[in-house]
Design a protein that fits this description.
The protein is of the alpha+beta class. The chain is built from five helices and 13 strands. Strands 1, 2, 3, 5, 6, 7 and 9 form a seven-stranded mixed beta sheet that branches. The longest helix has about 60 residues, at about 255-315. It starts with 5 loop residues before the first strand and ends with a helix.
Length: about 425
């Protein structure tokens, strides 16, 4: 047109969009696609041209999609589109408007599937970028040039999974070697994933499961069924959750790190219990040896003392005088209880044997009571005692896991904020 390229103004209004699965990595977009340009070659129906060459009528004409072959339209295509179609629910949403017999407006509603290279390393705290690339097909940029008029997101866009934080658009020129340069348009949409559902469905349950396994450190070491069942049940639950939330990507992402850490702590709980049980049994074994050696020493001492008493009883012949009861009573030699001064010889060993036997019986009774008391205490301690490893694990495991949770939350929040503000 007069040696100047035709300026085509493009407007894109996004009605709805949805990110597909990680396997396909595509963006489904429903848009209104508007083009506006000027064509002086048009003639109004049943109307001619005046003597000065200007169009007579200034009316507005509405044309349906059947006029697409009769009008010149910009031959554009969406460079990163994998599939697309014109919305045709009741009738094709495609029409033209001609104003003043020269200004042409084209409107069409399109359903597009755009390729979008996503990065899920920070999933579910990820920020995704998707592009819209519109390029001319056969007209060089010196003949037709595309210019953005508007690129915006509709007000009623469904954003249950993602939140749009930023949009941008710019004009560009695509250069092909040995072919030419073509005008193009570039639009960008930045998404931020809504993490509310992931916190409720993924992070909170796994956190509770790991904390639940820490209760086992307060359960006595000898109660194996309770300790093992808690850890094994938690491990199976976490592995199942990991399988259900797995993404089809070849690299490690944030949710995998969280789940792997939770599984590591539960597995470490099982290994800790095995170590605690080993230490507990070794301590019990050493105590049994000490008790057995003490019993042997006690039995030797008691045997020697009993033999000494028996030998003294058999060979002792020293006589002592015991008072006898006087028949007449009275006299200066009488003592209390009516005992006379007359004496007769009694073996002294008999006098010693009676108190020794009584003391031995009392000592044996005391030993039996102590033995019974010791057995009861040992039984209570053996069923309620904790290993020294449990006392350390009560503080080591919870503190280290809470430090990991705080570090993970801080890193995820900072990377999510930086990723959102980077594009603004």
């Amino acid at each position: 047109m007069d040696g100047q390229p035709v300026m085509v103004f493009v407007s894109v209004i996004v009605l709805n969009m949805k990110l597909s699965s990680t396997a396909s990595q595509t963006l489904d977009m429903d848009i209104f696609y508007h083009n506006f340009w000027q064509d002086q070659r048009l003639l109004a129906p049943n109307e001619g041209v005046s003597s000065n060459g200007s169009n007579v009528s200034g009316s507005l004409y509405k044309l349906d999609h059947k006029w697409a072959d009769r009008l010149w339209t910009p031959n554009t295509y969406f460079r990163n589109a994998e599939a697309g179609s014109v919305s045709n629910i009741l009738s094709p949403t495609h029409y033209y408007s001609v104003l003043n017999n020269s200004h042409v407006f084209m409107a069409v509603r399109l359903n597009l599937k755009l390729s979008c290279q996503m990065d899920f390393r920070k999933f579910p705290f990820d920020v995704q970028r998707c592009f819209l690339n519109i390029t001319m097909t056969n007209e060089d940029y010196r003949i037709v040039q595309l210019r953005w008029f508007e690129f915006r997101i509709g007000r009623h866009l469904d954003s249950t999974e993602f939140k749009i934080v930023y949009t941008s658009y710019e004009n560009c020129i695509k250069v092909y070697e040995d072919i030419g340069s073509y005008s193009c348009l570039f639009g960008e949409v930045v998404f931020k994933r809504n993490i509310g559902s992931y916190i409720i469905k993924r992070f909170v349950p796994s956190f509770i499961i790991v904390v639940m396994t820490f209760i086992g450190f307060w359960i006595p070491t000898s109660i194996s069924p309770a300790r093992v069942s808690i850890a094994v049940t938690a491990l199976l639950a976490l592995v199942t959750q990991q399988i259900q939330s797995d993404l089809n990507v070849s690299y490690i992402y944030s949710l995998q790190i969280w789940n792997a850490t939770a599984i590591f702590y539960v597995f470490a709980n099982l290994c800790q219990y095995a170590l605690a049980l080993f230490v507990f049994h070794m301590a019990q074994k050493s105590k049994r040896k000490v008790k057995q050696s003490f019993r042997r020493m006690t039995s030797r001492v008691s045997t020697k003392s009993g033999a000494a008493v028996a030998g003294e009883t058999e060979h002792g012949s020293t006589a002592i005088e015991l008072p006898t009861i006087s028949e007449e009573g009275g006299g200066k030699g009488d003592n209390h209880c009516g005992l006379s001064g007359n004496h007769h010889q009694v073996p002294r060993a008999r006098q010693r044997t009676v108190p020794v036997l009584l003391n031995a019986a009392k000592l044996q009774l005391r030993r039996r009571c102590r033995a019974l008391r010791t057995r009861v205490q040992l039984h209570f301690r053996s069923t309620t005692r904790h290993s020294s490893v449990d006392y350390i694990s009560r503080y080591l495991f919870p503190i280290s896991y809470l430090l990991f949770v705080f570090a993970f939350a801080a890193h995820s929040a900072s990377s999510r904020t930086k990723g959102a503000f980077f594009f603004c």
